[in-house]
């Protein structure tokens, strides 16, 4: 893979997935933001973050597979 904008975009995507997943885990298992997010809102937000991470991971996988096939 060539160094360039494409590579930087992929790395930012990977970092985003890691940060969103870490945020979901922190919110799910600690008392962070418990005064604002509680009950179903908290669970829904964690599910939304995890769904976002899964979707972003799938998109990164597709881009990597497509680039590998082009080379």
What does this structure look like?
The chain is mainly alpha-helical and 71 residues long. The protein has one domain (5-70). Helix content is 79%, strand content 0%. It has two helices and no strands. The chain has helices at 5-29, 40-70. α1 (5-29) runs antiparallel to α2. The longest helix has 31 residues, at 40-70. The radius of gyration is 16 Å and the shape is elongated. The mean pLDDT is 88.
Q: Biggest sheet: strands, sense, closure?
A: none
Instruction: Bin the strand percentage.
Output: under 5%
Rg from C-alpha positions? 16 Å
Order of helices and strands: HH
Mean pLDDT, as a whole number?
88
Overall SS class: mainly alpha
Number of helices: 2
Distance between the termini: 8 Å
Question: Can you give keywords for this protein?
Answer:
71 residues; mainly alpha; 0% strand
Show the helix and strand layout:
Layout (H helix, E strand, L loop, with lengths): L4 H25 L10 H31 L1
Helix pairs in contact: 1-2
Task: Provide a compact summary of the structure.
The chain has 71 residues and is mostly helical. The protein is built from 2 helices and no strands.
